[in-house]
Amino acid sequence: MPVSQLKRVAHRLASLAQDNPEQISLFVSQRSGGMRRRIDLHMHTTHSDGTLTPTELVARARSKELSCIALTDHDTVSGIKEAQRAGNEHDVEVIPGVEISVIFEPGTMHILGYFVDIENKDLLKGLESVQEARRHRNPKIIERLNALGFAITLEEVEKVSGGDQIGRPHFAKVMVEKGFVKSHEEAFKKYLGRGCSAYIDKRTVTSKDAIQMIREAGGVASLAHPKQLKVPQGDVF
Asked: What is the pLDDT of residue 195?
């Protein structure tokens, strides 16, 4: 499918986002030799909070008969080139994307960007500012967890992250592995979720800034998992 057509698909999908990222996986019917294409436009790798490298993710996508994916790691585009190389090898189209954490109340807001120019200097500068905020946040989370009695080090969290960035899911993974909590969900509900005792806010970018970054990089902006906004039902924003 040509990029121009895929961009039109992305514009349409911007209004179809669901709360669960897995629900963004969908079937797109098109007349292309009678084939039905399966795509997933919200995927993460070890460059953020995923469990697979970009190469492994593309291979998994191929094994699941996906013909097109969008790599949308949190606040970074560092895995795109590897994923696209693997995509060429496995005949899987890889859309360059990103998921940017932005300031929002009362819940959380993430803005997805599709078809971004990963060499765009303004985009890279903006993402670096978010990454720097993340790096400053992580030791503070460790301090709070230690104060709560959990013997966890930043080195342990870095080890399980396996990539460029550390996110709260990596803290949760260590907590589960060390027996402090029974599940990822418990770690977030009791300690790491917003408003909890070990939560530290890292957000420094507004939604307007994120959308501008994406558009200036030639991309299409979309809202991820809108239910996490926690906006009262019926409210318009």
From this structure: 87
pLDDT digits 0-9 by tens, 105-126: 888 899 999 999 999 999 999 9
The DSSP string of the chain is --HHHHHHHHHHHTT---SSGGGG-EEEEEEETTEEEEEEEEE--TTTT-SS-HHHHHHHHHHTT-SEEEE--BT--TTHHHHHHHHHHHT-EEEEEEEEEE--SSS-EEEEEES--TT-HHHHHHHHHHHHHHHHHHHHHHHHHHHTT----HHHHHHHH-SS---HHHHHHHHHHTTSSSSHHHHIIIIISTTSTT--------HHHHHHHHHHTT-EEEE--GGGG-PPTT---
pTM for the complete prediction?
A: 0.79
